[in-house]
């Protein structure tokens, strides 16, 4: 009986019993690591990441959530490269929640964020692939009775000079019985066939997504499952005082109504009765502790705070002294609104439990803490809770919850109705946009001096909210009471300015906030890159040459700026036939991005972005086309919010409730984008976020050359604050 | 009450309230989950299906309004234009998160059925009701042009 036969028979016997089945075939080390099935009939699992099946498919278990940025494709590329696999045989699926096996090596817990998927996995996944390859080669060597060193592997085929050849599947069974080697050698970059090669790799998820076949959390339907929506307080910090569900329970399809920690849950046989049932619900809210300030009031308070001394977070020289004596002092105050992430798939989650064990399935971005949260709410030991990560319809930071509020609500909803009632919790778009966890409101008050054609001094006073203080993640980013995500990109500049100071004020506001694609850089890059451009203009300097002259210690930032100027055939910013150009360059998450935007003013007075040139240096470019896609998408995301995005609070209540009022970029507003990827041998860094920060200021700087003031408040169009 | 309508060639009868949007009947009652919920107010296009061959926002169309009509969803969309669009979407690696793409693809196929060689402006007009928060718009545009070329050949 071959390994293949054993697999099939045991599969048939234990169909549905899960990965334990496969565990029977694994070597000792791998056995301990296998938590669930992967790749169907996997017979060879040399480590936590690679599964080779008898049918030759290689499935890579992806520890990072796929919500568009490409980790399924990227991490699989790394494994395939070192295995010398054929791209056509590669598959990807999410790894289960297991911090021992699947921690983000930069975080120490399992989670995705900070554009870190490739950065933290680069060696780990290559090693996983190289180990698998070495074992398959060894198995072939033993079968063919030849030295392993004489075997080559190309496009998934093992070959020996005598003419013997075979595919991975044939040796998977034998390889699974071999000891797992340690410290296998990794390829030299010159030998890469997939990494960095244009066209070598296509995304693994495109075909299904073009055909409506990709499975998201909202698509889960199981027998007896109830769909749940929750009525939450209209103001942040409100609480349910009492409720009357009489009318709700009359709605056809509504099954039950339960109070939970976050509000009142309506359980129904489907989404429509759940929505109707919630509309019929009468809830009295206790708003005694709710946040009732409006955006206008908060901005007025921030303006006042910015005029008082804050906590110094960056200082050299004596900027105040230089400003006091300067002939030309430029001042600018920039205001950034609350922003919603508004992923296309609103928050949702599925949970089934029987009182002793649970299965949760959702777009989990911080698996370790969400796993622990669900177990704690249900009162179960963590090893009795299984968490499966689903494909998610976008995140942009929304699913990376430092507060664990979705996981907690999902478990509360399941617990309130009791065991053996599977639940699917769904947020509507209105829940999403009015539900908080926004990019915080921020204000930057900047002052600068120009002397002898140079920027002589710079001060920046920042006011905003911290979303980290008081959370379990505080230790990660808060040092000496300062949340570094509030100031990143502003407290140290890539520009050499002799006299410099940056201060921060942390305001206390009862609006739940969260990181949002590119985090602090969403506002610091706009403030810094607009203001440096304004000062260079005051000094009569070219925006590109003027920046380069101050960037001597930043060779990679200079590199992308020079590259983008060349790509766009930069010939100064000034308007030609009604179109002007603006530039910005930003380092974020270890990657460097420079952009030039060509902008005109439409007859309606709205900025129209025609074209964006973009140069990116993210170290080794693993998947060039995924990098291009992230640059394009991040530019569109950035333009959409810089131009139109705003959540306004009116007496504490969010005004925008759906896409009719939370204006989102549409196809006719998307510019043409041309991307250049800088060839680099530096270690790879992220691309999910770094294309967002430069585009807002690049557009603003172009507007300044069309006779407009650089917008002092975002959004540029239709801001109501 | 029971509502009868034809979806992807099969007649279904579902006992749900008159005001139930077609979207939820498709997803929750018929198990056709390729059509997505994005806004519920006909602003994002993720729920696009065809009613007698024409694109329709299923999230605001009550089942009581589609009696006797032929509904087509992403699961059953077919023909030369559908094949060309889905092939171009795959070849161009258009999707990122992918959640809106069912609706994008449905709108793109409908466009090419009406207009064999759309200009950029035609694409803007046909596609601006479909929001993509990942902003894959540049690739959507390129894929539609590419699909049009392949249909010409």
CATH-derived topology of the largest domain in chain A: Aldehyde Oxidoreductase, domain 4
Q: Note the overall shape of chain B.
A: globular
Strand content of chain B: 15-25%
Strand content of chain A: 15-25%
What's the story with the biggest beta sheet of chain B?
5 strands, mixed
For the structure shown, list the relevant keywords.
heterodimer; A: 721 residues; alpha+beta; Aldehyde Oxidoreductase, domain 4; 3 domains; 7-stranded mixed beta sheet; 5-stranded mixed beta sheet; 21 helices; B: alpha+beta; Ubiquitin-like (UB roll); DNA polymerase, domain 1; 5 strands; 15% strand
Please provide a written account of the structure:
The complex is a heterodimer of chains A (721) and B (153). Chain A is α+β, with helices and mostly antiparallel strands and 721 residues long. Chain A folds into three domains: 208 residues, Aldehyde Oxidoreductase, domain 4, CATH 3.30.365.10; 152 residues, Aldehyde Oxidoreductase, domain 4 (2-Layer Sandwich), CATH 3.30.365; 313 residues, 2-Layer Sandwich (Aldehyde Oxidoreductase, domain 4), CATH 3.30.365.10. Chain A is 30% helix and 23% strand. Chain A is built from 21 helices and 29 strands. Chain A has a seven-stranded mixed beta sheet with strand order 10-11-8-18-15-16-17, sandwiched between helices. Chain A is globular and about 85 Å long. The N terminus of chain A is likely disordered. Chain B has a five-stranded mixed beta sheet with strand order 2-1-5-3-4, with helices on both faces. By secondary structure, chain B is α+β, with helices and mostly antiparallel strands. Chain B has two domains: 71 residues, Beta-grasp domain (Ubiquitin-like (UB roll)), CATH 3.10.20.30; 73 residues, [2Fe-2S]-binding domain (DNA polymerase, domain 1). The termini of chain B are far apart. In chain B, a hairpin with a 2-residue loop joins β1 and β2. In chain B, α2 crosses α3, α2 packs across α5 and α3 crosses α4. At the A-B interface, α8, α10 and α20 of A face α1, α2, α3, α4 and α5 of B.
């Amino acid at each position: 009986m071959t390994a293949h036969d054993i697999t099939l028979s045991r599969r048939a016997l234990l169909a549905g019993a899960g990965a334990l089945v496969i565990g029977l075939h694994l070597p000792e080390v791998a056995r301990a690591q296998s938590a669930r099935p992967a790749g169907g009939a996997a017979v060879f699992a040399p480590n936590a990441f690679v599964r080779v099946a008898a049918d030759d498919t290689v499935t890579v278990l992806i520890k990072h959530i796929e919500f568009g940025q490409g980790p399924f494709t990227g991490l699989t590329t790394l494994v395939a490269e070192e295995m010398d696999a054929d791209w056509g045989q590669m598959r990807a699926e999410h790894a289960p929640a297991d911090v021992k096996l699947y921690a983000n090596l930069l975080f120490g817990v399992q989670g995705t964020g900070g554009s870190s998927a490739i950065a933290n996995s680069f060696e780990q996944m290559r090693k996983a692939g190289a180990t698998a390859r070495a074992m398959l080669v060894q198995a072939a060597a033993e079968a063919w009775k030849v030295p392993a060193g004489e075997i080559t592997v190309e496009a998934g085929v093992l070959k020996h000079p005598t003419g013997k050849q075979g595919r991975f599947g044939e040796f998977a069974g034998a390889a699974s019985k071999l000891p797992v080697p340690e410290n296998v050698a990794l390829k030299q970059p010159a030998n890469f066939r997939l990494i960095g090669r244009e066209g070598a790799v296509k995304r693994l998820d495109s075909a299904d997504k073009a055909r409506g076949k990709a499975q998201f959390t909202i698509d889960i339907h199981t027998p007896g499952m109830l769909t749940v929506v929750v009525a939450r307080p209209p103001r942040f910090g409100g609480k349910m005082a009492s409720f009357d569900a009489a009318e709700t329970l009359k709605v056809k399809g509504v099954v039950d109504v339960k109070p939970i920690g976050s509000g009142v849950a309506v359980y129904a046989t489907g989404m429509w009765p759940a929505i109707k049932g919630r509309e019929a619900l009468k809830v009295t809210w206790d708003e005694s502790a709710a946040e009732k300030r409006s955006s206008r009031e908060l901005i007025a308070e921030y303006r006042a705070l910015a005029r008082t001394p804050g906590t110094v977070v960056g200082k050299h020289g004596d900027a105040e002294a230089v400003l006091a004596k300067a002939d030309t002092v430029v001042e600018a105050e920039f205001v950034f609104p609350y922003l919603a992430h508004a992923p296309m798939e609103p928050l949702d989650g599925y949970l089934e439990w029987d009182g002793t064990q649970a299965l949760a399935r959702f777009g989990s971005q911080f698996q370790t803490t969400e796993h622990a949260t669900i177990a704690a709410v249900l009162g179960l030991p963590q090893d009795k809770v299984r968490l499966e990560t689903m494909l998610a319809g976008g995140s942009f930071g929304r699913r990376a919850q430092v507060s664990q509020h979705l996981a907690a609500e999902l478990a509360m909803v399941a617990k309130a109705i009791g065991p053996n009632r599977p639940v699917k919790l769904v947020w509507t778009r209105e829940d999403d946009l009015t539900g908080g966890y926004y990019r915080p409101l921020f204000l930057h008050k900047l002052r600068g001096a120009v002397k002898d054609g140079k920027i002589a001094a710079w001060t920046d006073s920042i006011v905003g909210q911290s979303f980290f203080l008081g959370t379990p993640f505080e230790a990660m980013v808060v040092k000496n009471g300062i949340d570094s995500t509030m100031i990143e990109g502003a407290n140290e500049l890539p520009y050499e300015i002799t006299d410099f100071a940056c201060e921060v004020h942390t305001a206390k506001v009862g609006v739940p906030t969260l990181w949002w694609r590119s985090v602090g850089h969403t506002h610091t890059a706009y403030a810094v890159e607009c203001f440096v451009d304004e000062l260079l203009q005051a000094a009569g300097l070219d925006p590109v040459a003027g920046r380069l002259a101050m960037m001597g210690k930043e060779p990679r930032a200079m590199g992308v700026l020079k590259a983008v100027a060349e790509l766009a055939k930069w010939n100064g910013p000034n308007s030609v036939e009604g179109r002007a150009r603006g530039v910005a360059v930003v380092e974020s998450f270890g990657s460097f991005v420079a952009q030039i935007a060509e902008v005109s003013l439409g007859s309606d007075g709205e900025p129209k972005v025609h074209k964006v040139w973009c140069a990116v240096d993210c170290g080794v470019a693993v998947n060039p086309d995924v990098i291009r896609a992230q640059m394009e998408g991040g530019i569109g995301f950035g333009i959409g919010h810089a131009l139109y995005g705003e959540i306004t609070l009116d007496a504490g209540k969010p005004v925008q409730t759906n896409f009719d009022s939370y204006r989102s970029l549409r196809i006719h507003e998307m510019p043409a984008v041309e991307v250049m990827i800088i060839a680099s041998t530096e270690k790879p860094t992220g691309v999910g976020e770094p294309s967002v920060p430069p585009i807002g200021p690049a557009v603003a700087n172009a507007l300044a050359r069309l006779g407009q003031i650089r917008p002092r408040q975002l959004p540029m169009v239709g801001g109501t604050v | 009450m029971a509502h009868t309508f034809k979806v992807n060639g099969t007649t279904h009868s579902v006992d749900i309230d008159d005001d139930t949007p077609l979207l939820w009947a498709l997803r929750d009652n018929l198990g056709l989950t390729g059509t997505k919920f994005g806004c519920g107010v006909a602003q994002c296009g993720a729920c696009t299906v065809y009613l007698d061959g024409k694109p329709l926002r299923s999230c605001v169309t009550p089942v009581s309004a589609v009696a006797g009509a032929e509904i087509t969803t992403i699961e059953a969309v077919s023909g030369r234009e559908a094949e060309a669009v889905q092939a171009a979407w795959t070849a161009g690696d258009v999707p990122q998160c992918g959640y809106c793409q069912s609706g994008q693809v449905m709108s793109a196929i409908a466009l090419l059925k009406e207009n064999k060689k759309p200009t950029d402006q035609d694409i803007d007009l046909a596609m601006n009701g479909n929001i993509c928060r990942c902003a894959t718009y540049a690739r959507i545009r390129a894929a539609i042009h590419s699909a049009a070329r392949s249909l010409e050949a």
